[in-house]
Design a protein that fits this description.
Helix content is 75%, strand content 0%. The chain is an all-alpha fold. It has two domains: 149 residues; 61 residues. The two termini are 31 Å apart.
């Protein structure tokens, strides 16, 4: 079972190790701060996903009270209403039957709404957390945006607005690889919510987050391959 579920502690540990790797190799880079923020976000999301596994106690107690009160009202009305006197006609019978069916339908819809309230509350919490994770993914992508392997070419011509590029081939490949690893961690953090909340809408939202990270990671690896094609491979941790 240890390999059939995601372990939040392992994900956090992976993020912490990655943060140290980035700090040791690029101590002055903004990516170090992003890695640090990713660790904090991983802790928050792991805690939030764990909390969602537990039922909302006060809400379930409230639903139980409402059900008991509603059932008591129906029983009370049923005991005080006399059915001894026959209906005066077919119209009165149909009208009474229609009122009873409408009441039962409304009661059923109200009960369904109460029972599904916990699912809606948890879903809203998940979306709030995933919004922060989505923003983190775009922040990571912004940090690799100007890391262009084409700048390593001897024929590359700078302009006045060209960003400063101080990384050699090996460091550039390692920098991009760190970004790709961060994006992979964000996907695992999103998957924690699909594991904690058994809801189709949540699963779709998690899949969207994972797809976003995967697509951006694919772009990063295209850059890494360009470095490798030029014979400039990266070595080291």
């Amino acid at each position: 079972m240890a390999y059939r579920t995601l372990d939040p502690e392992r994900i956090i540990l992976t993020a912490e190790i990655l943060e140290r790797r980035v700090e040791e190799r690029f101590p002055e880079a903004g990516l170090r701060k992003v890695a640090h923020e990713l660790v904090k976000l991983a802790r928050d999301l792991a805690e939030g996903a764990k909390a969602l596994e537990q039922p909302i106690g006060w809400l379930r107690a409230l639903i139980g009270v409402v059900i008991v009160v509603g059932a008591s009202v129906f029983l009370f009305v049923g005991t005080i209403v006399s059915f001894d006197r026959p209906p005066t006609g077919a119209f009165d019978f149909v009208q009474g039957l229609e009122a009873s069916i409408n009441t039962l339908l409304l009661a059923g819809l109200g009960l369904f709404s109460l029972v599904s309230a916990e699912e809606r509350i948890k879903r809203k919490r998940v979306f709030r957390q995933l919004h922060g994770l989505r923003s983190m993914i775009h922040v990571i992508d912004m940090h690799q945006l100007t890391k262009d392997p084409a700048a390593l070419s001897a024929n590359f011509r700078r302009t006045k607005s060209s960003p400063q590029r101080t990384l050699g081939p090996a460091d550039l490949a390692r920098y991009l690889d760190y970004c790709s690893e961060m994006l992979s961690i964000t996907g695992k953090l999103a998957a924690l919510y699909a594991q904690s909340v058994n809801d189709n809408v949540v699963v779709e939202a998690v899949n969207d987050i994972e797809a976003l990270g995967t697509n951006l990671s694919r772009k990063i690896w295209q850059k890494i391959m360009l470095i490798g094609d030029a014979g400039m491979t990266a070595k080291g941790n």
